[in-house]
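[Meeting: bench + compute handoff]

Bench side (C.D.) handed over the final construct sequence. Compute side (W.E.) agreed to return the predicted structure before the next meeting so the bench team could plan truncations. Sequence as handed over:
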Amino acid sequence: MKKIRAPPFSLRNSLECGQVFGWRKHGDGYAGVLRGKKVFVRQRTPWLQFEGASADEIRNYFALDHDLNEIYSKISVDDRLRQAVKEFGGLRILRQEPWECAVSFLCSQNSNIPRIEKMLYNLRKRFGTPLDKDTQAFPSPAQLSKATEKQLQQCGLGYRAKYVKKFADHIARHKDDFLALKKLSYEKARERLMNHLGIGPKVADCVCLYSLEKLDAFPIDAWMKKVLEKKYGKKEGYAKSAEFARKRFGRFAGYAQLYLFAWARSKRHSLK
């Protein structure tokens, strides 16, 4: 098993915070698929041990180049953030593959993590390329574009099947769309994503933050809505609340969001 020295990093916090789906606890580590390859990762501080991928792929995916000390200094503007940073230190925003990330958050609408995981598992099982008898890669745009809307519904997607089908058809025809989005500003990338059926502000912000490296994006789901209302007194609509957060937390607002999200889920009773 290969290993690299990891800077301040928590594998568990980063994989179990709700930003990514498809990794599963396996023994003393986590098993998943990275760039079409079956991967196993475990943490033995100060080492990150892994197999199935290169050191560069692991460093890039887990964003080990992000300067967390600088990020903490920028976002720790109040006691809530300071507490979240203390409790969830080492949590990093991953560099997910944009296509899989977009489909994941299309499936996330009006759902919960176990159900999302089940939908994505069904898509991999039915349409993905087998890597071994128990593991399939996430289906490509071309593979999902061959599926019918009914077949997608049979995977548990419900009304989301229509969104995933149309998105797959588009990306299969325009393979370089995500490369173009990475070069755009956050605002323009977000606007472009929202031209697709089913992608609203929250899904677009998730894709921008978790796969396009737009670290100023601030997705607002039900948890974040509660945090902004109960702890910051913001009861305005999505656009104004997100604008408030980006101004308050600056160019690393996305990190503030993820730490607040993790903190909120751990303190759920105090937010009622």
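W.E. noted at the follow-up: The longest strand covers residues 37-44. C.D. will use this when planning the next construct.
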